[in-house]
Amino acid sequence: MLSYPIRRHAWKVSCLFVALASLAARPYQDTKQRFELTVADGWKLAPQFGDTSGMVFAREVLGREGGGTALLIVRTDPIGGRSLATFIEEVEAAFAKMPGYSKGREQSVTLNGRPATERRYKTSDRRLRSTYSEANGYFYLVHFEAPRRAAQRLWPQAKSMLASFTIGSARARSPVGQHTSTTREVEAPVGRWKSDSGLILKLDADGDYQLADVRGTYRVDGSTLVLSRPGGGRQSFAFEHDEDRGRLVLSSPQLPQPMVYRLIEDKRVGRRQLFGKWRAVDVEPVFELSLSSNGRFVLGPYSGQWAVKDGALRLAKSDTEFITYKFRFEGKRLVLSGGDLDKPVAFKRISS
């Protein structure tokens, strides 16, 4: 089974919120507008824990063909200065760890009218075909694999999905919001702040900000507050947050003197408000999310550690497998969005 770490995390085909959802020859559009395709009859949507880089489609294989699962996996990865050849090498380095791996034929093909490379591979019990291309600042990988005895029968179905594949309008963004800082983690000063001069700064728990009439997103990197504006502009401020006094001080070389803000509305959501067992509403099938005071979570078949960081809910199965959701409260309901969700999901508390 494919296990290439697109975001340096292992790929494990598993479902976070839903059981395999049946799709019968219907269109699928990536929620981030990176691609779309028509799903062949009998194939199912199989989202995986923590995955935001694409989608997995699966089909069960008959017992007389060895059983197991056939997969069509679509992945996107920001180019980040690499060549397509380097990207292919990274993927194949993961394939090489599979028992009985060998590389087969290579040919030039097209993907949605763009030049692409198709490569075939074998393992001891599976057959693989990968199509590689690039567009809009992304590498695209469309990967088919199936048990050896079922591969020839199922390839025409996968080929039809590949033929319907359309590259979307989304363009890869530079990793402004990503960093590898080793500085200690500092909680974001979420809230509505007013400076001594009357300037209003609003920092929401979901990472959005408003400064006067300017809106954008923000992140905290150690003791630095980074405000990013639409179009790519950004400003960085060293900040001091005195939580007890409700005081925030911003400074930068562009300011003649530090700006002092006072908290006028506390928008933080305490961990205690999240404790308990929650049940999703208006979704099928129904599932539950348990957030314990000891930092453990249970979500369907998954469990691990949870935390609130920078105003977001982080669920971690391990050090390398995690997903982060924006969250808010609407009355007594908890609403999660982002991460691997196609749309916001509301929960009602069923126990504390």
List the topology elements.
Blueprint: E1 21-22, E2 26-29, E3 35-39, E4 44-45, E5 54-60, E6 69-78, H1 84-95, E7 102-111, E8 114-122, E9 126-135, E10 138-147, H2 148-164, E11 166-167, E12 191-195, E13 200-203, E14 208-211, E15 214-221, E16 224-228, E17 234-242, E18 247-251, E19 259-265, E20 276-280, E21 288-291, E22 296-299, E23 302-309, E24 312-316, E25 322-330, E26 333-337, E27 345-351
Antiparallel strand pairs: 1-4, 2-3, 3-11, 4-5, 5-6, 6-10, 7-8, 8-9, 9-10, 12-13, 12-19, 13-14, 14-15, 15-16, 16-17, 17-18, 18-19, 20-21, 20-27, 21-22, 22-23, 23-24, 24-25, 25-26, 26-27
Structural Rg? 23 Å
Number of domains: 3
How many DSSP-defined strands? 27
The helix/strand series, from N terminus to C terminus, equals EEEEEEHEEEEHEEEEEEEEEEEEEEEEE
pLDDT averaged residue by residue: 82
- How much β-strand is present in the residues? over 45%
CATH homology group of the largest domain: Mog1/PsbP, alpha/beta/alpha sandwich
CATH class of the largest domain: Alpha Beta
The largest sheet, given as strand count, sense and whether it forms a barrel, is: 8 strands, antiparallel
Shape: globular
Compact description:
This protein has 352 residues and is mainly beta.
Q: Describe it for me?
A:
The chain has helices spanning 84-95, 148-164; strands at 21-22, 26-29, 35-39, 44-45, 54-60, 69-78, 102-111, 114-122, 126-135, 138-147, 166-167, 191-195, 200-203, 208-211, 214-221, 224-228, 234-242, 247-251, 259-265, 276-280, 288-291, 296-299, 302-309, 312-316, 322-330, 333-337, 345-351. With 352 residues, the protein is mostly beta strands. It has three domains: 21-167, Mog1/PsbP, alpha/beta/alpha sandwich (Protein Transport Mog1p, Chain A), CATH 3.40.1000; 191-265, Lipocalin (Beta Barrel), CATH 2.40.128; 271-351, Lipocalin (Beta Barrel). It has an eight-stranded antiparallel sheet, sandwiched between helices. An eight-stranded antiparallel β-barrel has the order 12-13-14-15-16-17-18-19. An eight-stranded antiparallel beta barrel has the order 20-21-22-23-24-25-26-27. A hairpin with a 5-residue loop joins strand 24 (312-316) and strand 25 (322-330). It is globular. The model is unreliable at 1-24 and 174-185 (pLDDT under 50).
